[in-house]
């Protein structure tokens, strides 16, 4: 990941901290409109998003987190993802709640659930339950921690997409887990 620091002129850090301290269901309810509003904010778009577009058009590489803003002790993380055409994540989950919203273009999200009971180490049997294309007009998608938000996000289109993600406090030490449905495997994902 090519992660830099966000200046965050258009975002009130206290708002993010307060959101991160809410009970999870309430936090998700408030985080979704917060992000949907943020990606409509002209000053945020001008400062944080538009400068990325030109740079992203020339990369032709994999998706990346261009910059992020971290709360203390993993209380929250606001991240800007850049999705060149044809890129996608592994199937994964997060050790926290999460909300994301497109600022430019659209992404495709595939959502999965586990069919196994989770008692076998490193084993997970997945079933795809839905897929949706998200654009700015569609508002924010949200995931619950761990098994409640197993998904893959990607950009199957032919132009760059940029999305803004807000993650809540971590419930586990690791960032989340990656899944390989071809061999029913799951493993912890540690930060690089
Ligand atoms: Fe994710």
Structural notes for this entry:
The protein is α+β, with helices and mostly antiparallel strands and 192 residues long. The chain has one domain (4-189): Sandwich (Jelly Rolls). It is 21% helix and 39% strand. It is built from 3 helices and 13 strands, in the order βαααββββββββββββ. It has helices at 13-21, 24-38, 42-57; strands at residues 4-5, 64-70, 77-83, 87-88, 91-94, 98-104, 106-114, 126-135, 141-143, 150-155, 161-167, 176-180, 185-189. The strands form 3 sheets. It has a 6-stranded mixed beta sheet, with helices on one face. A 4-stranded antiparallel beta sheet has the order 4-10-7-8, with no helix packed on it. It is globular. It starts with a strand and ends with a strand. The relative contact order is 0.23. The structure holds fe (ii) ion (FE2). The site of fe (ii) ion has 4 residues, from β5 and β10.
Write the layout of secondary structure elements.
Layout: E1 4-5, H1 13-21, H2 24-38, H3 42-57, E2 64-70, E3 77-83, E4 87-88, E5 91-94, E6 98-104, E7 106-114, E8 126-135, E9 141-143, E10 150-155, E11 161-167, E12 176-180, E13 185-189
Parallel strand pairs: 1-2
Antiparallel strand pairs: 2-3, 3-11, 4-10, 5-12, 6-9, 6-11, 7-8, 7-10, 12-13
Bound molecules: fe (ii) ion.
